[in-house]
Structure formats: C-alpha cells, structure tokens
C-alpha cells in the first residue's frame, strides 16, 4: 500500500481538526495549527520529538499536550501501545496506518506485528462484491510463549 502524500495527510488532518474545533466550540488558534503542521510532517513521534520540531516557536508544554489530546479525540493521531524497550509514548497519524496483521496475547496484552507475505498477499488481492478495500487490520488473538509457559507450569 503506497504511503499517502504529505499534502493529502495535512489536508485530511486539517479538515478533521477544524470540524472538531467547530463542533466543540474551541478556539482556532495559530498554536494549534502550527502543532498540526509539525505532527503531519513527523507522522510518528514522541512528545519530545514534537517539542524538538517546534524549537524556536513559543508554545507551552501544556498547549502541546492539550492539542495532542484534541487531535486524539478528533481522530487525527492515536497513542501507540507502549513497545518494549521504547522509552517514550509514541503517537502516530491515524489515517496513515498501513495494512497490518497483529497478534495479541489475551493474557499479558502484548501486541506484535506479523510480517507474513502469504496472509498479506491473500488480503491485498482479495476482491469483495460491491466493496473496494483501502487497507486492513487483522488481529489474531491467542497466548504468547511466556504466558503459555506460565500456564503449563501452573497445571503441573
Ligand atoms: Zn502473554
């Protein structure tokens, strides 16, 4: 699935933010629009990355957090599940998300992305009657190795 162009991302994000601001009767501030523009450039980032991108522009930390939460509610960005080893919470533009196959452990909640060309090709090539797919998210639920081992130990 090809990545969306920068302009398209900004246009879609801008429309969503404006719609949200209008519906919730918030103020259409220059700060929010500056943050939106930085978010669209970064696409996937931590709050520190975003603050770094805004270096030289006077925007308070509170405004950054506040705008991010507005963007989350407006369906522009979402917080990613904390990955092991990653120090800061990552945000990502929602509608940028590529098609993915993920496995989720029902016990510990760990999520891993699966790179399986057989499944991916099958879904990419799938034709539906009266429906054109843009992307997909497939979640496979089960139990990870660690949790399975714990369970077996408990039984014995
Ligand atoms: Zn587990």
Summary of the model, kept short:
By secondary structure, the protein is an alpha+beta fold. The chain folds into 2 domains: 6-93, Orthogonal Bundle (Arc Repressor Mutant, subunit A), CATH 1.10.10.10; 99-155, Ferric-uptake regulator, C-terminal dimerisarion domain (Dna Ligase, domain 1, 2-Layer Sandwich), CATH 3.30.1490. It is 45% helix and 16% strand.
Description:
With 156 residues, this protein is an alpha+beta fold. It has 2 domains: 6-93, Arc Repressor Mutant, subunit A; 99-155, Ferric-uptake regulator, C-terminal dimerisarion domain (Dna Ligase, domain 1, 2-Layer Sandwich), CATH 3.30.1490.190. It has 6 helices and 6 strands. The chain has a 3-stranded antiparallel sheet. A 3-stranded mixed sheet has the order 5-4-6, with no helix packed on it. Strand 4 and strand 5 form a beta hairpin. Helix 1 (6-23) runs antiparallel to helix 2 (30-42) and helix 2 (30-42) crosses helix 4 (61-73). The N and C termini lie far apart (47 Å). The relative contact order is 0.13. The model has no long low-confidence stretch (mean pLDDT 85). The structure holds zinc ion. Residues 105, 107-108, 110, 143-144, 146-147 line the site of zinc ion (ZN).
């Amino acid at each position: 699935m090809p990545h969306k162009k920068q302009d398209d991302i900004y246009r879609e994000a801008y429309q969503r933010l404006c719609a949200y601001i209008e519906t919730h009767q918030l103020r259409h501030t220059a700060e929010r629009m500056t943050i939106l523009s930085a978010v669209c450039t970064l696409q996937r980032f931590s709050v520190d990355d975003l603050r770094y991108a805004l270096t030289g522009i006077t925007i308070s930390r509170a405004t950054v957090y506040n705008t991010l939460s507005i963007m989350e509610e407006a369906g522009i960005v979402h917080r990613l599940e904390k990955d092991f080893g990653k120090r800061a919470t990552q945000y990502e533009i929602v509608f940028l998300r590529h098609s993915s196959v993920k496995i989720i452990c029902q016990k510990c909640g760990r999520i891993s992305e699966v790179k399986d060309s057989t499944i991916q090709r099958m879904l990419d090539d799938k034709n539906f009657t009266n429906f054109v797919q843009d992307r997909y998210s497939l979640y496979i639920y089960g139990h990870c190795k660690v949790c399975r081992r714990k369970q077996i130990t408990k039984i014995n």
